[in-house]
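the two lines:
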Amino acid sequence: MTPPVQEQATVEGGALASAKIAGGVLPGWATYAVVIAGAALAAAVLLATGAFTVALMLLFAVPVAAVGLYCWSRAVEGPRRAKDRVLTLLIASAFALAMLPLISLLYEVAKRGIPGLSLEFFTSDARGVINGGGAAHAIVGTLVITGVAALISVPIGIMAAIYLTEYGTGKLRRALTFFVDVMTGIPSIVAGLFAYALFEIFFGPGIRLGVMGSAALAVLMIPIVIRSAEEVLKIVPNHLREAAYALGTPKWKTITKVVLPTAFAGLVTGVMLATARIIGETAPLLVTTGVIDSLNSDPFNGRMQNLAVYAYNEYRSPGVMKQASYDRAWAAALTLIAIVMILNVVARLIYRRYKTEIR
Amino acid sequence: MASVDTTTNAGQLLAAASGGRRRRGDRIFSNAATAAGVTILALLAGVAVFLVVEGLPAVTASASELPGGKSLVDYVAPLAFGTVLAAAFAALVAVPLAVAVALFITHIAPPRIALTLGYLVDLLAAIPSIVYGLWGIFVLGPATVPVMKWLEENLGFIPFFKGPASTTGRAMFVAGLVLAVMILPIVSAVAREVFSQTPRKLQEGAQALGATRWEMIRMTVLPFGKSSIISGAMLGLGRALGETMAVTIILSVSGVVTFNLISQSNPSTIAANIALDFPESSGLAINTLIATGLVLFAITLVTNMAARAVIARQNTAE
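prediction for all of em together
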């Protein structure tokens, strides 16, 4: 995952040398100047035709700048350097373009989600309330369902990772590696249908339980846990294991007392990131946990609401006061994103703070 | 790899040499680990088996008993078409962008900030799909309406943009764009991984011969990463095929089969159809939906297995 340490000096040195051979070289600010000029030109043309929007300006600025930069660079530095500059500009623009949805999404969720947040949203459920109420039942449901899913996934996932790194050999190991990868690609709705089919056979049709949602989420979470756990167990250096064996420690004690503690921070981080990945799943819960307006914190008894399905339902059937419903949907989305972000940040902080220095 | 094997053997020898008490602890632990591994395989098989068991009644039922009075094949076909259309469009948009993003992070951005940029792209993968759906219908959809109108007026002769353009943004075009954003981090993660592993000798050799950075990328990085880009694209395609909520929220479905991306009436997708109908269904309708889920499972399974096989072959070739 670590990007290579590019030797910038070498790159620029080489570029400089080739430019000198070819003749002139553009000043360091050339690209920025051309982009700004391109944006200004696009803005001027758009203003003149009366169709000015920021989005259109940015859209036209890049091609205009690319053409301008190519011509200028070609005149001074020759065609090869010109091509290099233009493609660098285009790749950088593509990155900026890919970041636009992220920025827009976070901004819009914050803007539209905040009006719906209130004390009521976090403290009361929606039982018997028409057009209103809070989302406490959904928040509790999300935490319980995800918690149970983690309780199922973590032991199985980590034991399987231990198998893969410490014990596995031959065909079974190869099959497991391959199918864990394949499992990461199971569509979430299929995981939901699986949980439904499994419980229907034992409890009859129409069954809806919180734990069914947990089972569906576990199918999605287990491969993620295995992947990340395997990754950190692999980097535990062998000499630690060998030192333990040399002291006469049995293998299982070597794993539980040496390997797992060494990898502990990485394991915790991996589990938290996996939890963050599944906590916002909607589709599998839509078909397994059902819809309910009141608080239920018992995953083995009756329907359970959760934030993602709550947001979906508030959007889907908004009732009479549409905007209030949409506000609640966005507030639920904001709450979900906040939980995901907190899990991500805390996971990375834990890793940075507690990781074992491996030499 | 060899060193792991020797330590394993050494551990086993040691365990064998010392008393049975230790051997028992080892045996229990090793069996538990193996059992967990086997459980995973059983789980994957279980997914297939339970879907088959619950989907079978719909396969054997006669056409008149099924929802809509159509045979199962007639029921699934338009849905499968919509699924593949949406996913293919998403992959077409996402893959070039994802490759550019990966190139930018690994070879163009200053190394100091590259890690942070990678983290930002990964953040796209962490956002729940329901949020993408809401963003698509409330923000991207309305913003795309003028674009679709322009496409209809100027490129209307291409079947994809025949129109009439949607005025609400609830079109395949928007759903595909949202799916593209969702799969971008997956494709780009695979590409990033392999781009950063391009042998330094090749890169430096190219530059020593006077290649510009782009020439170096084109002659060393891209050929080295070619098969990974393909497999990354297939992984992304697999994700787009099974993505549910964004499509469910954005598309206004009418069950037609059309390549028209920008109109108000769209084919549904398998996943979206399940999400829309399942909560209100009962009896044979449930079995039918599960049977369609089985079809989706099969399609994604084949796509993913092909992608993983390509990656595995490349890893052994190195």
